[in-house]
Amino acid sequence: MQKVTFPHQLLPYVLLAPQVLLTLVFFIWPAGQAVYQSFLREDPFGLQSTFVGLANYSQVLSDPNYLHSVRVTMVFNLLTAVIAMGLALLLALAAERVVRGKRIYRTLLIWPYAVAPAVAGMLWLFMFNPAMGSLAYLLRSCGVAWDPLLNANQAMAMVVAAAAWKQVSYNFLFFVAGLQAIPQALLEAAAIDGASGARRFWTMVFPLLAPTTFFLLVINTVYAFFDTFGIIYTVTGGGPAKATETLVYKAFSDGFVHLNLGSSAAQSVILMAVVIALTILQFRYIDRRVHYA
User: Are the beta carbons of 92 and 169 closer than 8 angstroms?
Assistant: First the structure.
C-alpha cells in the first residue's frame, strides 16, 4: 500500500476542517442543545426555564400516545425498508438483463431520488386523493372503498408507499453496483452445471450482495426514522387519529405545535439513542453473518 505524504503537516487538518466544522455546527451542537434542553421545563414563549432532571423522560415514557408512536414507527420502518430494498433489488436484476438502452433505464430509475421528501409526499397525496386522485379512482373502480383520511390502514399504506418509492432509487443504485461487481464467470459456470436462475440467485448472487444489503439496511433504518418526516407531514399530518404519527413527527408536533419544548427535546434524545443502538446492534450481530470478498 502506497503511503501518502503531504507537503505540509498542517495540510491534512486544513482539508478536514470544513467537514469537521459542518459536523460540529449542524450535528454535534444541536444534539448537545437537545440533551441540555431535555432536562429543562420551559414556558411556551421560552422566557423562563426550570431544571427538572429526568422528569421529561419519565413523562414521555409513561405517555400512552408516545408508546403508540413507537409501535407506529416500528411498523412503518419495517414496511418501508423491506419494500424499498425488495423493489430496488428486483429492478436492479431486471435492469441487468436489459441489452439495449440499459443506461436509459438506469437513469430513469435513479431520478426519483432527486425529488424532495415533501414533494414526493404531495405527489402521492394527489394520486391517492379520494376526491380527485387518479389512482384513488382506479381503486374505487375495483370496488375498494378508498379513503385514507378516515381509514388508518389505508393511510399507513399510502405513507409507506410514498416513503419506499422515494428510497427505491438510492437502493437501486447500490444494488446495480453490487451486481456489476459479481464475476460473471461464476454465474456462467453455475448455468453450465445446470443451476436454475432462482438457484443461482439464492446460492451465489444474494450471498455476494450481502455487504451491499447490510449497508442499505443501516441506511434505510436511519432514513425511515428521520428523513420521512416531510412525507408524513405533507401526506397525513400524523392522522387519522395518530395512525401515522411516527416518533420524529411526534417530537415536531409536541415541540412546534403544542410548544412543549422539554418533552420534544427528550423525545429527540430518545430517538437519537434508539437509532444509535439499532445501528450498533446491526453492526455487532448482523455484520457477523455478512461475508466480504
Answer: no
Cβ atoms < 10 Å from Cβ of 269: 21
User: Top-level CATH class of 63-285?
Assistant: mainly alpha
With contact defined as beta carbons under 8 Å apart, do 240 and 155 qualify?
yes
- The alpha-carbon radius of gyration of the chain (Å, integer) is 23
Q: Cell numbers for 84, please give them.
A: 424499498
- The x, y and z cell numbers of residue 36, run together, are 441540555
Burial of 253 from C-beta contacts in 10 A (0-12 / 13-18 / 19+): buried
Tell me the C-alpha distance between 155 and 140, whole Å: 16
Whether the CA torsion 31, 33, 36, 37 is positive or negative: it is negative
Give per-residue pLDDT as tens, 184-201: 887 778 778 777 778 888
Q: 291 — alpha (psi -120 to 50), left (phi > 0) or beta?
A: beta
- Cell readout for 47 is 422566557
Q: Hey, which of 116-125, 127-136, 159-168 has the most confident mean pLDDT? A: 159-168
Q: Tell me how many degrees the CA angle 155-159-161 measures, rounded to the nearest 5.
A: 115
| Residues 64-71: contacts with CB under 8 Å, at least 24 apart | 65/242, 65/245, 65/250, 66/250, 66/267, 68/242, 68/245, 69/242, 69/245, 69/246, 69/247, 69/249, 69/250, 70/247
42: three-class secondary structure by DSSP: strand
